[in-house]
Amino acid sequence: MDTSLQYALDQDQKDVLHAFRDKFHIPKTSSGQDIIYLCGNSLGLMPKSTSNYVNQELEDWKNLGVEGHFHAKNSWMPYHEFLTDNMAHIVGAKPEEVVVMNSLTANLHFLMVSFYRPTPKRYKILFDYSPFPSDRYAIESQIRFHGFDPQVGMIELAPDAGSEIVSMTHIHNILEQQGDDIALILIGGVNYYTGQAYDIKTITSMGHAKGCVVGFDLAHATGNLLLRLHDDGPDFAAWCSYKYLNSGPGSLSGCFIHERHHQADLPRFAGWWGNDKKTRFLMRDQFVPIPTAEGWQLSNPPILSMAAIKASLDLFAEAGMDRLRKKSEQLTAYLEFLVSQNGSSALTIITPSDPNQRGCQLSLQMTNPDKRLHEYLTVHGIIADWREPDVIRVAPVPLYSSFEDVWRFNTILADGLNQI
Ligand SMILES: *Cc1c(COP(=O)(O)O)cnc(C)c1O
After folding, report:
1. Which residue's C-alpha comes closest to atom 14 of ligand 1?
2. Which CATH class is domain 78-317?
3. Are 14 and 276 in contact (CB under 8 A)?
4. Residues contacting 176, CB < 8 A, separation 6+
5. pTM of the entire structure?
6. Residue range 343-388, pLDDT digits in tens
7. Fewest beta carbons less than 10 Å away: which of 89, 214, 343, 385?
8. Minimal CA–CA distance to 200: which of 160, 175, 170, 233?
9. Where do the domains of the chain lie?
């Protein structure tokens, strides 16, 4: 690697996925330049194909009304099934283990109804260091709902002294000390703040060895890391589709429920869409769950949102997660190299430098927090995000970010550091 623009341009030329950038709408600055978009970890960009996918469903609704459930080009009745194979592939699951439904926080709650089954002796939840606030609120309210004290019941992971990174030794020690009190381990696949990726397989087996249920919030991992949920064996997982999966603001969430639980007699909050498809419309009194992850569905789903998901998943299938991950590792290593070359002590990269412990995001922590740096970036055509109190998160995503984007970002960053 070197710091010249030519190096970046050469890498883009060699990139087998470079053509995918053209399949996305890249927002423009007021002077018509492409924005350097490094915020795909928050809201992924819109594929150009999305309009056609959504319009197809609008047209069918316009022309067919309720008949669209059966006679739309893509019938609405089984529409969620059109997403399953691609989604299962992205998270490394069997198709029966995956369903797209609801939104992420709602799914965390519904999954906890089945998988957080506290007893007076074992009711604690072990959760991520500095988690996304919604996860904290969901966990706290679940503990309270079951009549336990969140002050005692919530165990938050902690980073090693002098770092922002949670070590496996720390997780191991907590499980050794308190494993028998922990009903549920629910942590991120990638921490949204530090960008640290956790070892799902090892955490799952350590948790299971202590008799804990193990679930993951994969909001920042899906479409970013190579996941193998079936083989790694967590009990459940959920993620949203609007970050790396580019499915539009507030779009639906994906769920994974390991097949070992499909026939188990778990409590759940039921709805008609989870009922056996053969008897669903007989409107019987007795609920007969579909014996797969689909049995957790509640409502008939929003087709317009699913159409946007389908557009994006079709692009993922074309690009392939293996190729995406490979490019992602290169892009992020390049970003890390350039930022380190700046030699500035004003920024520290708190994300692990081991590629196995991160996805595409790097979190840049300011030694002397000054939000003007983020404003400088924004004014100069970069969308990255600022997380209080002191972190700028930058995520070059392999589907549409280029090496040139990364080079230009770093040039502007270096100027900004000199000027503020
Ligand atoms: C983005 C994100 C959410 C957002 O939840 P919604 O229910 O989709 O609004 C929740 N948890 C994590 C870890 C996230 O990254």
Report:
1. 219
2. alpha beta
3. no
4. none
5. 0.97
6. 778 999 999 999 999 999 999 999 999 999 999 999 999 999 999 8
7. 343
8. 233
9. 5-48+320-419, 78-317
